[in-house]
Design brief:
Two copies of one chain form a homodimer. Chain A has two domains: about 130 residues, Aspartate Aminotransferase, domain 1; about 250 residues, Aspartate Aminotransferase, domain 2, CATH 3.40.640. In chain A, helix 6 links the parallel strand 3 and strand 4. Chain A is built from twelve helices and 13 strands. Chain A is α/β, with parallel strands linked by helices. Helices cover about 35% and strands about 10% of the residues of chain A. The radius of gyration of chain A is 22 Å and the shape is globular. In chain A, helix 2 runs antiparallel to helix 9 and helix 5 crosses helix 6. In chain A, strands 2-8-7-6-5-3-4 form a seven-stranded mixed sheet, sandwiched between helices. Chains A and B meet through helix 2, helix 3, helix 5, helix 6 and helix 9 of A and helix 2, helix 3, helix 5, helix 6 and helix 9 of B.
């Protein structure tokens, strides 16, 4: 896809930016001067639209119209309206997605729903490399339910052969948070269905960076966060997808009043709302939710296929430049080599990965580190430039060549990034 | 407490405002011109501090420091730090409270924890008048657990006599959302303990308006929302209280990564964090959370006893004025007559309650309506004036005398307020 003659030069990279049809989108973001941001797969940056929308919600809506904003400014329908917008990005129907709670909570809801939908089956099949909260929520649910479901963890290569008639649900990340490996959503969904199992996809590391096509794949269930490639803001609320064919029988175990058929009737008995709304629970966090809504506007200006294409080019460039500039310096590729098997990130391994990432951050190149040795570089086609990749690899080369990271100020300590 | 000669005059009410030591606090709020707000028990108004803090968080923190804000601006500890501030307001120790999720989700966590702490007991004892989500969450949990717990609902007068050795946990609102009746937290807690049961208090309608004294009452468990008297903003995150003596054995059933002992170790197995932190779950919604944090500043300037005193005076004035100005017009008091038994609201009943509230709202007097016939007036001593009460009752008198509410424009339709 990326066709550049070898060796790749800075000029050739600048030419890629000149030819980039998405480059006008960058000015919608409030990016810090001089910072090259490769962590949009962890926390997407602020859009001007989100800042304006939150300010308006504070000042005009909450501030001036107070409680009446629930009706007057449509707060009450916001989880559903924003859900419908996310639906387009994950290839689902508008009435199949709603915003609610966190990804963790939504995993709990859908794992419980899946076990109910497959009575007599007791296995949740997953991978040890799954994002930890996905495993933890399954472990917690297993403790609570009787008979106790079993969490069966197998490596990705053995996943399909581990399917059997005990498996109620396969719980998987679409894109692995650490390596960026992209699962074949369609193939795994089909294989699970052949064994009578459902699949619950965690789209946190893919939504907003590529086409997902849940309906086309006949996917059953999915969750995802909105603060990575969707740029919704720190800890912004997550979403739930339930295929329409499962909605009537799928039930959330968390019977909150926002999931009730008629919340403002204040009935003493829970009656689930029809459709996807039953997967709401408590009162939604409006400030965080309007930030998500505003952040989604930019996706109206772009096709997901375009995003994916640029994302793959950014990844191919990064890998090619690392091979060209940093060979023999102890870096290995933790991500798949073929960009079709990668999500929107490139992960590298190095025994001094932590220190190297600290040295990069000191130079204003912000990726992140995942223990024990992974440097992650998120690729975000809405606002990243090809030249950012060139400069990041140049800095990486310099740090490695000069063992800059050996300096005591890069010694390891507890960090979040 | 309120001593005014009869009949109460406007001048006497103005004098109350002149003598009000809390009146300087009002200017910290961004209150709409000309609006008299009696719905702070549903959605508290915006504080200038919250608007500034959210703007700063958007612009300087998220916008400029991006992912590094988790450490640099202390986002990672925010649930705990804000929890410690709420602790002071509910009479708990700083390490007994954490901010997490919604009130609904937190009810689920603590009901499950309570059942685990009382093995062999299967009853959740509550009241039919409990806020609906409290009942729904218990019903949902009962469906999930085996052996199935039983939700036993009894009226408040029969509550203590319904305690027996089957009761694992009593789940109660401290202040009833509809009538404003205030439960005797200390007495009920003691009675439950005598029967070996725990009590889970929902403080949503009391925290921020009065002293609560959880530690003094030897309370076990509590939840509450931050968007009513705490003014945290629409759908702002809720809190969890677990008494220190229960923390080691109390376990959340929702094993999210933010409740893990070491979230950023990315272990595959869940290990609960020590103490209250295990009741966190997913990534916290930072924008909503900083709004809560800023909104709590004002409580540093006031004693809860002062707030309670003014709240009671506001309530007594409202009741006395309704009796003086509106007698014979079909209004009855839905709240207890004795202000010591009331929370920070006065509820009235009228067969045309919905239309009357609509007519009041049209005049800029915003209370709310709860089916079938309750008009609620929230009393919020941080920013309300005694004159607001006078003017609200004057408007109510006029509406009733002239049957203004009989006009077709006030006919009933679905609403949230």
């Amino acid at each position: 896809m990326l066709e550049l003659s070898s060796p790749i030069t800075r000029e050739a990279v600048v030419a890629l930016d000149r030819g980039d049809a998405l480059s006008p989108l960058r000015h919608h973001f409030d990016l810090p001067q001089g910072l090259l941001y490769f962590d949009g797969n962890s926390l997407g940056p602020l859009l001007h639209a989100s800042r304006q929308r939150v300010a308006e919600t504070l000042q005009q809506h909450w501030g001036q119209d107070l409680i009446q904003s629930w009706n007057r400014h449509g707060w009450i329908d916001l989880p559903r309206r924003v859900g419908a917008r996310v639906a387009r990005l994950i290839g689902a129907e508008p009435d199949e997605v709603v915003i609610a709670d966190s990804t963790s909570i939504n995993l709990f809801k859908l794992l419980a729903a899946a076990l109910d939908l497959r009575p007599g089956r007791s296995v949740i099949l997953s991978q040890p490399s799954q994002f930890p909260t996905d495993l933890y929520m399954a472990q917690g649910l297993a403790e609570l339910r009787q008979p106790q479901p079993q969490l069966r963890l197998v490596e990705s290569d053995n996943l399909i052969s581990a399917l059997d008639s005990d498996v109620a649900v396969v719980s998987l990340s679409h894109v692995d948070f650490k390596t960026g490996e992209r699962a074949d959503l369609r193939r795994i969904t089909r294989a699970a269905h052949q064994h009578g199992a459902l699949v619950l996809w965690d789209l946190s590391h893919s939504a907003g960076a590529m086409e997902i096509g849940l309906s086309r794949a006949e996917a059953d269930l999915a969750v995802g966060c909105t603060y990575k490639f969707l740029n919704g803001g720190p800890g912004s609320p997550a979403y739930v997808y339930v295929a329409r064919r499962h909605q009537e029988r799928a039930q959330s175990p968390l019977w909150g009043w926002f999931g009730h058929r008629d919340p403002f009737a204040f009935d003493t008995h829970y009656m689930p709302a029809p459709g996807i709304d039953r997967f709401q629970c408590g009162t939604p966090p409006i400030l965080s939710l309007v930030a998500v809504d505003a952040a989604l506007d930019i996706f109206d200006q772009v096709e997901l296929a375009q995003l994916r294409q640029k994302s793959m080019m950014l990844g191919e460039l990064l890998v090619a430049l690392v091979e060209q500039q940093c060979s023999g310096r102890g870096l290995t590729l933790a991500s798949p080599r073929d960009s079709k098997s990668r999500g929107s990130q490139v992960s590298l391994r190095h025994s001094a990965g932590y220190q190297i990432m600290q040295a990069l951050i000191e130079r204003g190149i912000v990726g992140d580190f995942r223990a024990p040795d992974v440097l992650r570089f998120g690729l975000t086609p809405l606002y990243q430039r090809f030249l950012d990749v060139w400069e990041a690899v140049e800095a990486l080369r310099d740090i490695l060549e000069n063992r800059v990271w050996d300096h005591p100020r890069f010694q390891r300590r507890g960090v979040v990034t």
